Amino acid sequence: MSHEIRTPLTAISGASHLLSESSLSSEQRKICSIIRQSGEQLLSLINDILDLAIIEAGEVSLEEREFSLNEALKKVISSFKLQVKEKELELKLIYPEDLPSNIRGDEEKITQIVSNFLSNALKFTEKGKVEVRVEELANSRIQISVKDTGAGISEEKLPLIFNKFYQVDGTIRRKYQGTGLGLTIVKGLVDVLGGEIKAQSTLKKGSTFSFNFSYRPV
């Protein structure tokens, strides 16, 4: 079912992108851009709904293998370079020298969580910096935190952010066009990893999202 839904939307987005590179009038190019953006937003929403459905059905399992956590995080950060440049932000990774680069764990889920945290951090940060920090905890656990200097979340709303379809307020939803499912999906993935997820935030000063998971050194 997911393939049947995703494939036509991906085709619409791809076709509109190709069309925009052909000889079009200014008005036609504008319409083409609307089609592409709307298709991408709808695809993002569908992906979130399908991902959440799979998690809630208990169909997500650990897929552990050896990988370089350091390199995996660098790759995730690199995927946001254009956004960082456009907003003139600073984005850096802090990886401790004494922590092994290669570990055994679920690379796909770990990077998906970090990517979601980074996407939110960059989305809500207009100036300043975003920092990804890796720390080794006791009992063979690792914590990854994403800290930003963005809009922040009020104390009373912070406990609600992992609820399905929750938006901090209507103004933010209209401005950033989020689905309200991202953090719910992330929490589900952290649960699959057997970890914990935390959020700290101060309104108008920034937020820190972190999660931890067990790993096996190699």
Automatic annotation (TrEMBL):
Residue stretches making up the Histidine kinase domain: 1-217
The keyword Ion transport is annotated on this UniProt entry: no
GO MF annotation terms: phosphorelay sensor kinase activity
Protein's UniProt keywords contain Kinase: yes
Pfam family, one: HisKA
Reaction equations catalysed: ATP + protein L-histidine = ADP + protein N-phospho-L-histidine
Keywords carried by this UniProt record: Kinase, Phosphoprotein, Transferase, Two-component regulatory system
EC id: 2.7.13.3
Protein name: histidine kinase
Organism in which the protein naturally occurs: marine sediment metagenome
